[in-house]
Specification:
Elements: H1 3-20, E1 30-36, E2 43-56, E3 59-66, E4 77-83, E5 86-91, E6 96-102, E7 110-116, E8 122-137, E9 140-149, E10 155-156, E11 160-163, E12 167-168, E13 175-176, E14 184-193, E15 197-200, H2 220-223, E16 233-235, E17 244-249, E18 255-261, E19 265-267, E20 275-281, E21 287-294
Antiparallel strand pairs: 1-2, 1-14, 2-3, 3-4, 4-5, 5-6, 7-8, 8-9, 9-11, 10-13, 11-12, 14-15, 16-19, 17-18, 17-20, 20-21
């Protein structure tokens, strides 16, 4: 075998091996998105995190938690898995997994995403692959699909770049334009996991950048929720004793405590043990800070 042919063959094998290691959503993987407020130009950040392995309909999948429900109208807890370079997500209405990404596709090929609109009516989105490329992130090659969505007047978010491990560069799932008054993800800022490491796309100075006026009350660095895990009281730095709306959610997205306070602590002694999401908002419902804690 000629040296040039041999080197080409070895490079192909190495690239295929590396691509094969790009598991979707390994435990602990986090996606950071810019979170746009529907009624203002303010920005916050949203996090989606892979929590653990589970089984649905005999399929081993990842349980994935998002901190903030958005206009894609997806649930707060997702179930996803990858098989043969295809990523699937669970649809609770049909009780089956639907195809989300297909990284086997080549230019000119298509795939369908089965989705439900805000009234839970089924819809089918045609994704067309215009071109492909490879990006090297922290020494690992990842396949990139450049796509356009088929003819539609409602669904947005899937004409753009879709990268292995990272997903779509705007939002993990497609969503309906102007369909709700919720906030919406508007661009992937960062992705991190134990294998790939940390990657920043550059659309924000830091992963948890925000411009919703936190400085008027306290900065993210000064927020300092403690202790974690919580015993009886959760403390935070409300130095000016501004009135804040506090909502606490369980892992199912259900509000388990809600209050308005100007204190610097919250009594959680009656909360059962578990994982929780806490949001602090101003009185005009602008989110100031989102975090998680254990009880």
């Amino acid at each position: 075998m000629r040296p040039k042919i041999l080197l080409t063959f070895l490079f192909f094998i190495i690239v295929q091996f590396c691509f094969g290691q790009n598991e979707w959503a390994p435990i602990g993987a986090k996606w950071y998105y810019t979170l746009k407020f529907a009624s203002t130009n303010a920005e916050d950040f949203n996090i989606i995190e892979s929590m653990k392995d589970t089984v649905i309909n005999t399929i081993t999948c990842k349980k994935i938690l998002r901190l903030n429900i958005t206009c894609d109208d997806r649930p707060q807890i997702e179930f996803m898995y990858e098989d043969s370079n295809r990523v699937y997500f669970y649809d609770e209405y049909s009780n089956k997994f639907n195809l989300l990404y297909d990284f086997n596709k080549t230019p000119g090929e298509t795939w369908y995403i089965q989705v439900n609109d805000n009234s839970n009516n089924p819809d089918s989105l045609l994704v067309h692959v215009d071109s492909i490329s490879t990006i090297i992130i922290n020494g690992i090659p990842l396949k990139v699909l450049y796509t356009t969505i088929g003819s539609t007047t409602n669904w947005v978010g899937y004409s753009g770049k879709i990268t292995e491990k990272l997903g779509h560069d705007r939002n993990m799932f497609p969503f309906i334009n102007s369909a709700c008054d919720l906030n919406f993800n508007n661009g992937l800022r960062c992705y991190e996991d134990s294998l790939l490491g940390n990657y920043q796309t550059g659309i924000a100075p830091i992963c948890d950048y925000t411009n919703v006026g936190i400085a008027e009350i306290f900065s993210v660095a000064d927020f300092n929720l403690h202790p974690n895990p919580v015993l009886d009281y959760l403390y935070f730095n409300n130095l000016k004793h501004d009135q804040l709306i506090v909502n606490i959610y369980n892992i199912f997205g259900e509000i388990v405590k809600s209050c308005i306070t100007n204190s610097d602590k919250i009594n959680l002694q009656y909360l059962t043990k578990g994982f929780y999401i806490i949001t602090f908002s101003s009185l005009d419902n602008k989110i100031i800070h989102i975090s998680t804690f254990l009880k």
